[in-house]
Specification:
It comes from Nocardiopsis alba. By secondary structure, the protein is mainly α. The protein is built from 16 helices and no strands.
Length: about 400
């Protein structure tokens, strides 16, 4: 009998890909749309700048806390069911966040962070399960879909707030996309169910094998290499996405121009994320791909510091670096996991530490800029992170898999 999860043709394959891409498209708009209307949120709620900063960091902190816990429910209930639950909670969280009471803003944001964390962890697992021979390609396309929806949400948030009468309906609108994604995922799940990953399928005439024993990846050197690569590239991305316009403003760049530069940064990331899959191919050795997405960040930061008149070139290079790096990171998680369950655990570990570092990056950059009075220190910080990522690349790209010790 054919397994619907790996059938390469027919309605199963089409629906599986559509459902996966719908999930990807749902994971970022609830986050990226907030920045464009943050001033409006402060005006209507009376929140201070520090409180708004905490509001922006809350989802990232949720990622860090929830990501390492996902493997338990995924093993118990199944990956597909948990993704569906996450989509339902995400849809509800977006709606709750836009309600008038002040507690709803925080409760809804927390719900968004928890549900997106689950999706972040499980998407690489689903790709490994359903298309194990096309991990880099599908990771690249999936990330392009995710980043495209993120850029669209960021670009439309402010205009929608003017048309719809405020930030609440402008942000609540994205609950519709998540609801559609949940419906498509439920259809795929119940029409073409996949076997639970925790119990391998029995072989005819033999007893079913025992489930894989629970094991920890936290003592695996390879798991830490992948985790550090994930964390360092996340730190660069979230630091630049938050502070690059401020850096440019300190150099006299008009806000509108800085906004277009940031849009170009995101578009370059989408294109680079697709292009890096050609470098990755189907090889186990991924050091060239790791270096190809790490070294340009160092070059871009040096260029912004020493040749600012070419700033657009360096910003596009930095965007390409971050866009390619997230694809490589997610592909490494799927490639280095070794088994489905270990991939879930590695994904949780890598994204927990990664987003914890990412939450600290913008805070550290802001503190440096305020303490020194020179926003170029942000570029120095990101350049140092890029150097560390380049160093880690030499180990993370090697083809060894994680071999966690027994707990």
């Amino acid at each position: 009998m054919r397994n619907p999860s790996t059938d390469r043709s027919g309605p199963q394959a089409v629906l599986a890909l559509v459902a996966l891409f719908m999930v990807a498209a749902s994971l970022r708009p609830a986050l990226t749309g907030v920045g464009a209307v943050l001033e409006q949120i402060g005006d209507t709620t009376g929140l201070s700048s520090s409180a708004l900063g905490l509001l922006g960091a809350l989802p990232l902190l949720g990622f860090a806390i929830v990501s390492p816990l996902v493997h338990g429910p995924a093993n118990r209930w199944g990956v597909d069911r948990l993704v569906l639950v996450a989509l339902v909670v995400l849809c509800a969280g977006i709606a709750v966040r836009s309600l008038p009471p002040m507690p709803a803003l925080w409760i809804g944001t927390a719900m968004i962070g928890v549900s997106v964390a689950v999706g972040n962890v499980l998407v690489p697992v689903i790709i490994r399960r359903d298309r194990p021979t096309h991990i880099p390609l599908l990771t690249g396309v999936n990330t392009a879909v995710m980043n495209s929806s993120a850029a669209l949400a960021a670009g439309l948030a402010f205009p929608l707030s003017l048309v719809l009468g405020g930030w609440r309906p402008a942000l609540a609108l994205w609950a519709g996309l998540v609801a559609v994604a949940a419906l498509v995922w439920a259809t795929r799940m119940y029409r073409f169910p996949t076997p639970a990953m925790s119990v391998p399928a029995p072989v005819a005439g033999r007893p079913a094998p025992a489930p894989e024993p629970e094991a920890s990846v936290w003592r695996s050197a390879k798991a830490w290499q992948v985790t550090l690569f994930m964390g360092l590239q996340s730190t660069s991305f979230f630091t630049l996405i938050n502070w690059l316009p401020t850096v440019e403003a300190s150099r006299g760049v008009a806000p509108a121009t800085a906004g277009w530069h940031l849009f170009g940064f995101q578009i370059a990331g989408i294109l680079a994320g697709l292009a890096v899959t050609a470098v990755m191919g189907r090889r186990a050795e991924q050091t060239p791909a790791c270096l190809a997405v790490s070294v340009p960040m160092v070059v871009a930061m040096a260029g912004l510091l020493w040749l600012p008149q070419w700033s657009l070139v360096w910003i596009l290079m930095a965007g390409g670096s971050t866009g390619g790096a997230i694809v490589v990171s997610l592909a490494l998680i799927a490639l280095r996991g070794g088994t489905h369950l270990r991939t879930v655990r590695l994904s949780g570990m890598a994204q927990s530490i990664g987003y914890l570092l990412a939450a600290g990056g913008p805070v550290a950059a802001g503190a440096l800029g305020q303490a020194t009075g020179r926003w170029e220190t942000v570029l120095l910080l990101v350049g140092a992170v890029g150097l560390a990522q380049t160093t880690v690349s030499l180990a993370a790209g090697r083809p060894e898999r994680t071999e966690p010790s027994r707990t």
